[in-house]
Amino acid sequence: DDKVMEAENAGMEVIFIDTFFEYNPSCRQMDFSILDSSSCEGRSMIDIAQKIEDLAIALGVEVDTEAVNADKKAACQAAEDFTREMEMVHSKGIRVKASILGTGTDDQGETVVSVRGFDPIELWVLRTFEELGMPMLHADDGEVTAAEYFVDCSPGFYNETCNGNTLYPVDFWLIDSRSYLLMLEPSFVEIFPDKVSCLRQYQLFFSFSFLTH
Question: Which residues 6+ apart lie within 8 Å of 98 measured at CB?
Fold first, then answer.
């Protein structure tokens, strides 16, 4: 990062709090840019919030200890409740996949759907969900089309007669907020008749959420 280099050349000490990844010398270069993304492992939101609090205290920032402790207590209770619910999800064998959806047109002018998955290791929100017990699928094949997703369907013809066999064994979708409105359109299941989508087994998630206790 040019600004980082400018600051260091001016004799300023740079304090870098990585709000994406755990420390790994193979992940980032000295200027904090990505060196090897395959070596980068996402930090959970809980860990990031703690790092930021530690920095604030080290810098002498006035902290409302009572309010922070109350927030921590509420966060811990929410985490415990979430973990308990995820134990039940695990017992039922439910598999969750986080993805973002897209639409376009093919050579014939027909609307086509694409699905791009997220690896839970890479994003702090999903890493947090998984650390607290959510059974996340880790498949990340880049962007796949409906033709690739519905294994037994003929390209351009997707319906309930061939939608039983899919590329991912998904039981519940976490859909990125940037494409969530697509799922709410009644006509969406006509071009992407995924059984999970038809049963409305999905929920919105924010891939880049606010960090706080």
Answer: 117, 118, 120, 123, 126, 136, 173, 174, 175, 176, 205, 207
Cα 182–186–187 angle (5° rounding)?
80
Write the pLDDT tens digit of every residue in 30-53: 778 899 988 999 899 888 888 888
CA distances to 8, 23, 47, 86 from 17, rounded to whole Å, are: 16, 10, 11, 30
- Residue 191, token pair as written in the block: 């071009």
Tallying the residues shown for the chain, one arrives at 213
Low-confidence residues of the chain, pLDDT below 50? none
- What pTM value is reported for the model? 0.80
List, as one string, the DSSP characters of 148-205: HHBTTSBTTB--TTTTTSBSS--SEEEEETTTHHHHHSTTHHHHS--HHHHTT-EEEE
- Burial track 174-184 (b if 16+ CB lie within 10 A, e otherwise): bbbeebbebbe
Q: In what order do the strands lie in the sheet with 111-117?
A: 143-145, 111-117, 96-105, 172-176, 202-205
- Amino acid identity, residue 66? E
Owner of token pair 């980082």: 4
